Amino acid sequence: DGDSMALVGPTIFAVGSDAKHVVVKQHPAIDQWAGKIDRSVTNYFIVERKTGSFLDRKAGVRGPLKKEEFDRLAASLSLPSFTKTFDDLQ
Could you tell me the pTM of the whole model? Predict the structure, then answer.
């Protein structure tokens, strides 16, 4: 989801979505201009599907979250599973 990438930032390597949310796994950039990422760190984001301005949509982003935080929210919010993984970025 291109919108999620703009809201979350590099480097997204797994996504999933339903009618209400997009879930994202991301490795933070060490040097995004050189394409260097820190694969030892995985951040999780929950993006609420919203319309409106970029700032409105940005307000619907939760994260970066650690796995434990994400797992708790995934259960309480009935979040979608990750359905697409970019193995070369994982």
Answer: 0.84
